[in-house]
Write a structure and sequence with these properties.
Length: 153
């Protein structure tokens, strides 16, 4: 198990989660007939063990920061995702987008999501470019159709 010191980047906070989740939701909404909104972002806390538990089990093992929960609503579907905050904004965006796209694939099977505006029959792909994370047609990966995040990865 990685120790705290092994992580180079500090954990993202709730505000950063809100920003990244909002960008994922906004770009998905821009590119399809479906509206995606962020309905909740909340940091959990590991429960504090009682003195009795510590006496029996020993001191708690450091398991790192508690996950942050993100909830999206897409049409009538609710998508709840838990993410370890020790992640980069790009990784977070990719994780959240991936979960929503996976959900779409089971909920609206057969429908490309998010649909390619040029071909309409296949979904777009999230591309980590040199200065932006963006949605692109899988046949033209270098053409940015909607920027999710700017800046270094
Ligand atoms: Zn295409």
């Amino acid at each position: 198990m990685p120790r705290e010191e092994d992580w180079t980047a500090p954990p993202l906070n709730v505000d950063e989660f809100v920003t990244v989740a909002g960008r994922v939701a906004d770009t998905l909404t821009e590119m399809s007939a479906r509206t995606v909104i962020v309905t909740g972002v909340s940091a959990d806390h590991w429960p504090e063990p009682s003195e009795q538990t510590i006496a029996i089990m020993g001191a708690p093992v450091d398991t790192g920061p508690a996950p942050i929960g993100v909830t999206f609503e897409c049409d009538s579907a609710v998508i709840a995702i838990q993410v370890d905050p020790r992640t980069s904004p790009w990784e977070l965006a990719a994780r959240l987008a991936g979960e929503i796209v996976d959900h779409a694939a089971t909920e609206w099977w057969g429908e490309p999501y998010p649909p390619c505006p040029r071909h309409n029959r296949h979904p777009l792909r999230l591309v980590p470019g040199s200065d932006a994370l963006y949605w692109a047609c899988p046949h033209q990966l270098d053409r940015n159709l909607a920027t999710v995040l700017n800046g270094p990865a």
